[in-house]
Structure prediction request, 105 residues.
Amino acid sequence: MVIDSNNGIKPGNNGGNNRPSTVAPRESGPQSGAAGSSPRPASRDSVELSAEAQSMNRLEENLAQLPDVDVERVASLKQAIAEGRFEIDPERIAQNMLNQDDLLG
Prediction:
């Protein structure tokens, strides 16, 4: 498919249509429109979030309230490493990785 971009219309050019627009700008305020007419009814559009989306919103709100770093936990881990008490359990790490994968999948 070939696109012909040489149509003579340039940005800001209405393609040779020099007629004035027949659409009047909207007036702002509570009584836009002709005098004596009632204002338009309020829009009744609505959005309903799924249970999953509501749960995600609550989770995000809870996470936003937590500190980025648990300073006490970091200090205790540093102390354990320095004293040689920090043990790595590869089985536990692997199981936690699989659990995370199950949550995401």
